[in-house]
Amino acid sequence: MAILGSIIKGAIDLRGSLTSETSPREEQRNVLNNLLETAKNTAFGKYYAFEKILESEDVSKSFNQAIPFHDYNKMKEEWWCRVIDGVEDITWPGKPSYFALSSGTTGKESKRIPVTSAMIDAIKAAGVQQVGALSNFNLEPDFFEKEIMMLGSSTDLSERGEFLEGEISGITASNIPFWFKGYYKPGEDIAKIDDWDERVQTIAERAKTWDIGALSGIPSWMELMMKKVIEYHNAETIHDVWPNLQVYTSGGVAFQPYEKSFDLILSKPITVIDTYLASEGFIAFQQRPETTSMKLVTDNGIYFEFVPFKPEYILEDGSLSQDAPALTLDEVELEQDYALIISTVAGAWRYLIGDTIAFTDIERAEIIITGRTKFFLNVVGSQLSVNKMDVALREMEQKFDIEIPEFTLAALNIDGEFYHHWYLGTEAKVDAAEISEALDTALKNANKNYKVARSKALKGVKVTTISPNVFYDWNASNKKKGGQVKMARVMKEEKFKEWEAFVKNI
Fold it and tell me: What is the residue range of 461's domain?
């Protein structure tokens, strides 16, 4: 009998039963008040008169009216440049413990995002909440005695002056609680290996010495790691190496595009739990098995606002018009795309994180990620979000019985007429003209704006199929492999030319 597992499972179940049911709306009001109170004597807090905001009858409304939206460039140029230089009490009391490096999906140059001690504590607390939610997933007691493979970036953080910096997955892994270290794999020594290929090779070599029950990481890199483990051990599936694998916590991107390709390397079903950990904080996690939606972490160091994701509010570079309305959790509607705005215990204020979300359950504050503000394709009015692209591609997977875990596209002006050129990552052989027509039809049926655009200025659709490995090689050539690196789903025409040249030469 799994005695330790039974004790742990019992503690998790007990914690779940004792957790009080509080309103996410009330939690958000408390978070905003705490943020303002804590930061009122910082340079930012004095400049924007946080004390006066706290004295107002409607704190959230006054906060909204007093402080402009900030993207990374605005936040860095006006405030974080001094934080990076080591000046205290700029946007949060004291100095940050770390800087999270994030090049995201759009460029080679890393952003430096402050990670304070308060944010580390908030991420840990959200992680405890997520562990507590496992009581809803009906896992057997022996699962809680298995080891957990966390595949992120290197935990060997770089020194930069008085600060340490690295990707957020490396920072959080270097701060895991002492009691968790016995469960954590690949372990501290392997996790410090900076070269992703070397780290994965070492994982493959030691894989059979571990009893892995859960995996955690970005789907694309997790899939490549599992394939390497399978290849090294001449196995058929990952369950031949880790027979007790039961759970995968996905992070950073939606899991659905990878579902079919994952199934090919499993011999039995596993429980998939979505999480949303960004460089700026732990945003949300899947709380219950009846849905793939994630619950916003509304009580723990992040205040959320939501800007309706409409063309008139989004500037060409993906930033927001200062005239755009920002809604609170009291004001949002179901199944509407919103650009996510956050204010945090790391000293980000009304910060455009770059992701778009939609609510699936407002009372529970449950969301899905629908895309990126910079990946919204609205050339000639087509209004395609990444979520709508994903839905159409899942239909292609079913129609042609193929797997398409990766894709990118661009709107191209050819002799005065616009075309959408898609690159689909699949190992299957499929007629490009046939899938192009089917994809075009699916988008027309699912999106009335796209259908109108196709009847006017959007001339047609072109599809090129390539191996998914080309996408991973592209990311490796532009940034580092692994970690938080994600593929750009929509490219500008100039970047797309670089992409096409890369594909031809690979």
Answer: 377-505
